[in-house]
Design a protein that fits this description.
By secondary structure, this protein is α/β, with parallel strands linked by helices. It has a domain of about 240 residues: NAD(P)-binding Rossmann-like Domain (Rossmann fold). The chain is built from twelve helices and twelve strands. The strands form three sheets. It has a seven-stranded parallel sheet with strand order 3-2-1-4-5-6-10, sandwiched between helices. It has a three-stranded mixed sheet with strand order 7-9-11. Helix 1 links the parallel strand 1 and strand 2. Helix 8 packs across helix 10. The longest helix has 23 residues. The structure holds nicotinamide-adenine-dinucleotide. Nicotinamide-adenine-dinucleotide binds next to helix 1, helix 4, strand 5 and strand 7. It is an enzyme of class 4 (lyase). It holds the Pfam family GDP_Man_Dehyd. This is dTDP-glucose 4,6-dehydratase.
Length: about 350
């Protein structure tokens, strides 16, 4: 039976991408989901163990920056939509290696755009290029105000500059070639399967192992946090119901000062691990600030709420509890990721396929 849609999801072995692939493969048995991922250090097929044998799912190992390969792939499978999440995603890494971010986030996006433009030429109905992006493209806020879809772009890190650039390219392909597209810009995600270089999983891991918790500067930075499954639900809605050529901001209505978040995490971990009150907080260590560090991000998610009826389904406390429990129950996943041994999982899984 022919699938009703052939959707290419890029970066589907990553933190958010694996949630989206899982959500789509499970919910839409009439679609075929193709997951294209280069399996960089951040890509891990163990994230998708539960759906790897689903008949409506195919994994393709490949790099979005290889333009000929991408063009051939689109010609072979004739995807009718793309949900593009593949990216270099860690701000600290972008400070030490900006070019890697230009390559994947800008060049990779443009190579996907070219392929979509070429195979959809003259047949744009029901086609959609969806770019999953970040609120960091808007730069930083002072103590007041929120990012809206009209906030001018003002990126401060090589990561956010590369994502801003890829957003601009997506819009430019809409204007220049009539490519049907939609973009969403989301705040910080947290949840299961998060690579432990990012704050919440790093700190959970360090608390378990009694290692220092490095907090940048004075810890007064403010971020808005969203549970990753709620982001996946928002992506599903924007993909299916978002208006063509529009941007949707997605956020958790959930601002936290870094240091307060770390203290809350410490208190929860003390309880979960049966350690004396205050034990984990002793691990907090203030370290030299990140250069170009944005003071505050906060999202006005009113548009997606009004137009598509989306709002977060869990509170931060609930989401954090689910996340901590998941990391405690999945010590093997954490161990594989921190030791890098998940790399061999792919070889084992896909050898001979
Ligand atoms: P991640 O780093 O966990 O995953 C990225 C995935 O992309 C990995 O599986 C990696 O192997 C793959 N990838 C990297 N380079 C590739 C290439 N050249 N070709 C093919 N695949 C490649 O990232 P994430 O946190 O899941 O973020 C996914 C997307 O969502 C990114 O575009 C990011 O900018 C955006 N985003 C993330 C957040 C967040 O808080 N994590 C918030 C808003 C938006």
């Amino acid at each position: 039976k022919n699938p009703s849609r052939k959707i290419l999801i890029t970066g589907g072995a990553g933190f958010i991408g694996s949630q989206v692939v899982r959500e789509f493969a499970k919910k839409y048995s009439e679609y075929h989901i193709y997951n294209l991922d280069a399996l960089t250090y951040a890509g891990n097929l163990e994230n998708l163990k539960d759906i790897e044998d689903a008949s409506n799912y195919t994994f393709i190992k490949g790099d979005i920056t290889r333009q000929d390969f991408i063009q051939n792939l689109f010609e072979k499978h004739r995807f009718d939509s793309v949900i593009h999440l593949a990216a270099e995603s860690h701000v600290d890494r972008s400070i030490t290696d900006p070019l890697a971010f230009v390559k994947t986030n800008v060049l990779g996006t443009v190579s996907l755009l070219n392929a979509a433009r070429d195979i959809w030429e003259g047949a744009k109905a029901d086609k959609r290029f969806y770019h999953v992006s970040t609120d960091e493209v808007y730069g930083t806020l002072g103590e007041e105000g929120l990012f809206t879809e009209e906030t001018p772009y003002d990126p401060n890190s090589p990561y956010s500059a590369s994502k801003a650039s890829s957003d601009h390219f997506v819009r430019a392909y809409g204007e220049t070639y009539g490519l049907p597209y939609v973009i969403s810009n989301c705040s910080n995600n947290y949840g299961p399967y998060h690579f432990p270089e990012k704050l919440i999983p790093l700190f959970i891991n360090n608390i378990i192992n009694n290692k220092p918790l490095p907090v940048y500067g004075d810890g007064n930075y403010i971020r808005d946090w969203l549970f990753v499954k709620d982001h996946a639900v928002a992506i599903d809605l924007v993909f299916h119901k978002g208006r063509n050529g529009e941007t949707y901001n997605i956020g958790g209505f959930n601002e936290w000062k870094n240091i307060d978040l770390v203290r809350l995490l410490c208190q929860k971990m003390d309880k979960k691990l049966g350690r004396p009150k205050g034990a984990s907080e002793k691990l907090i260590t203030f370290v030299k600030d990140r250069p170009g560090h944005d003071l505050r991000y906060a999202i006005d998610a009113g548009k997606i709420n009004r137009e598509l009826g989306w709002k977060p389904s869990v509170t931060f406390e609930e989401g954090l509890d689910i996340t901590i429990d998941w990391y405690l129950e999945n010590a093997a996943w954490l161990e594989h990721v921190t030791s890098g041994s998940y790399k061999t999982y792919y070889e084992r899984m896909y050898r001979g396929r």
